[in-house]
Amino acid sequence: MAEAMSQNRKAAFSLARHSTGIIASVLFLAPIVWTVLSTFKPAQEARQPPLPPWPTTGFSIENYQTLNSFGDGLWVSAQNSIYVSVMTVLLSVLVSVLAGYGFSRFRFPFRDFFFVLILSTIMIPFQSILTPIFLVLTRLGLHNTLTGLVCVYVTLQLPFSIFMMRNAFDAVPREIEEAARMDGANNVTMLVRVMLPLVWPGVVTIALFAFLGAWNEFLAALVLMTDQSKFTLPVMMTALQSGRFGAIDWGAVQAGVTVMMVPCLILFLALQRFYIRGLMAGAVK
Amino acid sequence: MTAIAATSTPARARKLVGVSRRQWVGLLYVLPAVALVTVFFVIPLGMTAWMSLNNWPLMGEHSFVGLDNYFAILRDTRFWNALKFTAYYTVIVTIAIFAVAFPLAIFIERPRPLTNLYRTAFFMPAVVGFASASLLWSWLLNVDSGLFSPAAFDLGLTGKRINLLATFQPAFWSIIAMVVWKVAGFTMIILMTGLQSIPQDLQEAAVIDGAGPFARFRAITLPLMRRTLALALILSVAGSILAFDQFYIILRGGPRNQTLTAVYWIFNQSFVSFKLGYGAALSMVLLVILVALSLIQLWLLRKPEGLD
Q: pTM (2 decimals)?
């Protein structure tokens, strides 16, 4: 097909392609860029429509400073969000690596039953079991605690991440383990020293998904965290945007949204290949 | 590492002796996962079923009422309206997402200069959370401090600043625009994997046979993408049926409660009115719909006969 095209048509095609690409890219990026730029306006200017999006009456970080004056302050919510996300990453990686290894390398009774049980939870929307989760957390004394929220988030990650990790371990040749075993490695050393480096890309993928999932989750955090000091960023920012702290300060809302978006964007840009990998694994299964 | 080359006979012998004990160890590895899923998923699931048969206030004793909650659902016109709205939203938003994502997938399918850059740009909104995206758009859509209606007014497109969120149609289509913006990149990547799995020589053979681009798309691309299309479709449908964040954050279910989705109604019943038993019964209805959808998905995603 390409050979048949004349030089001119090729150039025209390329021009059309790049203009389409650039226009579409601008459309997708504009809302993000618009927001980030307008957060640097002074509060007074941020109340006006963002035309143009960049500050015209001087650069200011006022919007970020005022964030701390609402309720317990944004910094508390940011800390909560960071704590919940990091703990969700650590715990879901730990639990899924162990389980992925177990499901991949051992033949114990009920193995297939447990595997199907864990995977099938993906069919059930967690939105429909939030009330009992609330009651279970209360019974465990984890009511209104960040730890309770972490437990819920980790559980939600498990079907995807255990599926990923089992496949990752399945791809490691058994000879490597047998060799290590003969070198005297026990189960735990083998997993940590020999296997973990080999399944590392899978670990990064599930860690990334766990972080984004926990950082961005809204409904469970809204329902389960009733005390303002336990709010995560999405819940805190929604309270601010709903006018719970008086007149809505749109400059502050945009600053908060920027704080919520930037970590996701940076992580994605840095680890894009792992993200796409995860999507592919999900799509091709 | 020298041991790799060595014979594995001693290892085999040892394995035979300790076979059962060694295999049981596997149970320990999966135990934390099974425990978490049991405590935070299986038990709550059973509790939902049980609670749906009870009158269950937040405080005080709950009492068994049989199927009363389910009979109440039959009379709950607001729930049926919410379900109807959810279905309407699901259909419209899925069509809109595909109408944008499919051309984009074709656009980025083959490696050409700058393709990776475009793909990254299209995908960026997908990694932003639904709550962040909703907060962002609630600002863009705001009549006083936002972008769209002041910009339309300044450009002379409208005679005055129109509040986009005050009436159903503009509010609904604003949400559709926001969701397409956020989700299209995600669907695009899934569709791209399907497009890339179609053997290139098949397309080339069709070109030689004189098939035009449209005929090729219909006869080769669509049938060979069946499983990917089904997956993208189900992900979009399931996600839309469970929509909550954007309607809660941008519209609060308004204007005039016209954009209450199913999950939103359950949320209201359970955590605003604290009718936990009734909320559980509503949840069961939602759950049955989603599980049915998953079964349809498994059927659609089955390996095509005669292929693979």
A: 0.90
